[in-house]
Design goal:
The protein is α/β, with parallel strands linked by helices. The protein has two domains: 3-16 and 188-262, Helicase, Ruva Protein, domain 3, CATH 1.10.8.60; 27-184, P-loop containing nucleotide triphosphate hydrolases (Rossmann fold), CATH 3.40.50. It contains twelve helices and five strands. The radius of gyration is 22 Å and the shape is elongated. The two termini are 29 Å apart.
Length: 265
């Protein structure tokens, strides 16, 4: 018997890519969306930081979907370990431009193209904490192309808290000054973990009212510390443990077994 059959689900739970059915719209997520919209409208650079697994990429994808396609052209990348020339060339080829032999040529072609577009371009850079220092500086220079009058694109940097620390370093002070919106995405509260799992089960077509017992929910929150990715992983492993033990619902013991299997103690 499959997990879906055992718990009376119509689709596999906890999909890797969040969608409107699984996304928990809490106050923290709404704050991120509102701040990013403000940054784009005000033509200022935005920075979003969060610990790994807290939903940075999910928030970014949700924001991208919320933008009016008739007004905005979205460029997104998480390939941030490239050296400056390769990084700028990567951005250029992402929008269909031909390659160039030199970084200056690639940058100039990219800026000309972006300024020629009828729609405003929004550049979303995920995993930005991995950018080399020289690539961070190049991004600042690209946004200041028109003598700081108007950036050729709206820039949103997203990464782990290390990003905030790196931008605060002296060599990036000019960029630090230009970041008009700073927001941190924090882990879920205990009630939000409960709401998150309920939403996930509903999205999977669950017919049972209480898949997770209250004690199990408390243990999931305690061991996950409210980090959504860990919540999903622990909950899924606990569901498997409950099925193997032929339990009607996931209890605290199933969660404990999941924790042992995942080596999270």
């Amino acid at each position: 018997m499959t997990l879906e059959e055992y718990f009376e689900l119509t689709t596999p739970p906890f999909p890797r890519a969040a969608n409107d059915k699984t996304l928990l719209s809490n106050s923290a997520m709404e704050k991120v969306q509102a701040r990013l919209r403000f940054a784009v409208e005000r033509d200022t650079i935005a920075m979003v930081v969060a610990d790994s697994g807290c939903g940075k990429s999910t928030a970014l994808a949700s924001f991208a979907r919320s933008l009016d396609a008739a007004s905005y052209n979205v460029m997104a990348t998480s390939l941030t370990t490239l050296k400056p020339f390769s990084f700028i060339s990567h951005l250029a080829t992402t929008i269909g431009l031909c390659g160039h032999r030199f970084k200056g040529e690639a940058a100039a072609a990219l800026l000309r193209h972006l300024r020629s577009l009828p729609k405003r371009t929004v550049l979303l850079i995920d995993e930005a904490h991995l950018l080399p220092d020289s690539s961070i500086e190049d991004l600042r220079l690209l946004t200041a192309d028109d003598m700081d009058r108007r950036s050729p694109f709206a820039l949103i940097l997203v990464g782990q808290p290390l990003l905030r620390d790196r931008i605060a370093e002296p060599q990036h002070y000019a960029l630090w000054q230009r970041i008009g919106v700073r927001v941190q995405l924090r882990p879920l509260s205990e009630q939000e973990v409960t709401d998150f799992l309920a939403r996930q089960m509903k999205a999977a077509g669950c017919r049972k009212k209480n898949v997770f017992e209250p004690s199990a929910l408390a243990e999931i929150f305690r061991h996950s510390r409210g980090i959504p990715r860990l919540v999903q992983n622990i909950a899924l492993q606990a569901m498997l443990a409950a099925m193997e033990a032929q339990k009607v619902a996931v209890d605290a013991e199933a969660v404990h077994n999941a924790i042992v299997d995942m080596d999270l103690n």
